[in-house]
Amino acid sequence: MRQWRNWQTHQLEGLAVAIPWRFESSLPHQAFSNAFVISHQFFSLLLATAHFQRAPDVSYVPQAAVVTAMNQLDNQFGDEAAGRPRGAFGGILSSDHKSVGLRFLWLAQLSVVTGMALSLFMRVQLSRQAAGSLTAPSTSEGYAAITLLHGSLMVFFVLTAAPQCGFGFFLVPLQIGAREMAFPLLSGISFWMTAASLVGITASAFLAPIAGSTLWLLGVVCFSGGMILAALNLSVTVLEQRARGMTLPRLPITVWAWFITAILSLLIFSVLTASSVLLLSDRLAGTHFFGAAPQSSVSAMSVWQRWFWFFAQAEVYVAMLPCFGIVTHLLSIYSRRPLWNERLAVLALCAAGLFGFCIWGEHMFASGLNPYKPLVFAMLASSLGAPSALLLICWFGTLWGGAIRLTTAMLFSLGFVSLFLSGGLSGIFMARREFAGGSTGDALVTGHFHLVMGVAATFAILAALFFWFPKMFGRRLNETLGKLHFWLTFAGVYLLFMSMHWLGLVDRASNLTSSAAIHGLRTFLTVVALATIAAQVLFFVNFFWSLLRGEPCHAKNPWRATTLEWSVASPPPGENFRGGVPVVFRGAYELGVPLAGEDFVPQHLAPEELAKLR
User: Fold this and answer.
1) Nearest Cα to 303, choosing from 364, 215, 376, 359?
2) Does the bond joining 552 to the residue before it have cis omega, within 30 degrees of 0?
3) Which of the residues 159, 225, 363, 514 could staple to 319 if both were Cys, CB 3.0 to 4.6 A apart?
């Protein structure tokens, strides 16, 4: 505890007084209590971003000179010998933030393999039109259990845990110049709660419906508790552990995304935990929190739906906001240009989190809401188009005129932009009145949801993995296999989910339901799904081959990035920055200055070092 207090005291020294608000205390119990007022500071964050100013002009120097200066700082920020690989699992019981982040990513890989296998089974089931053919007892409950397990694995353990906890835990302390997370013990606890919930949720699919649903709820409670601890840890770390000079305007866009997501997670997972505990109490203790009262005009199911959608709608943005930050960061790095209007991008992330939290009622239009409330929720839902459009403008503005490097990570980032735009446009059509009701099948909603959230977020995760793989493991993924995997997957998901849109439009049309065309389209979807899932073998071959026998990454900064994680060895030493504390002198995107010998200056390179190298 004394060591943690010393870290806190050291990190708080020299924080810029221009920050509109900050927590002054370095005491652990006060820092812990500060986390509970984070939600009240959300609007202050919006005001803080209004003070964004680019760092003063600095003299840019050739890459060789920058690398020379960075090598001169190795004694302060680590060396290659200190960055020895720590093993694939990074220490099973370690509470080090890097080990915990890697364990979350391994858990996500296990979940995604299981989820893809289940999706293929369901696709074969639907193509044969034979209910219950996937389970030993041929029942519709068995198929529903498999569908629930697939959705739980992909949404909870892949789309939520991987970008926010996997990459977030590994990178946030490195990117803000901290030695460790604010609460290392909570990092380990959050992982083991997530792992326990994975076991429970998976086991629930093999039990009887009543017992299985109860075990599933227990797994959800455990997962929610782990995410609350992770969000609390990330929030306090960003607020309290920043290095000297790392003011809010100098934070990388990735840290902003993880921070905003942590605030949103604190709010919505608390609601999911409470609602699940109350439902478990009804099942196990005989209470009636969701029991239908005789004098009430609102059904018990409607009450549960309100609690559920309060979480589920915002969960979309818990999954997507970290992906927005990752893709925005990579587009700037690989286009060799500063992030276009960084303040606007941060404001768009804040607005997406805020509006996403407030539109839970858009799914309750037919469930007994006050007639005037749908108008409010419809306006809030429509407002989400504004931050999405601002992010698209920032992405295209960053790419415009840039020296684009089409690495595998860049291809997956561009694929994310394409999928997000295509899926968003299909959502606009689904809001029209003539698309409502029985005129469309479930396949349309499934295609839209997978395109805009599931596959798009997966592309962002893959882009992040290709980009930070050298930092995590000290080796590089094979670019040729990576690009082949991208093009096969990109073509496959468009063929699969755009065809689902078409199938949803005609599936319930009375004159086409039994036609050979519908049967042929279902068969086509099955073949494409099989080919797309088979293409993922390329990624796993690339991943494990590179992990075991891949080309070592001798360069400390192979992507010529500016953020602090590239100032240390790869993999990072056990103690970040070798026990020192870096000092930050500029923003995270000092890239692409004309007439310079090179196009980047690291955040930690002091002005006097630049002056010597001019």
Assistant:
1) 364
2) no
3) 159
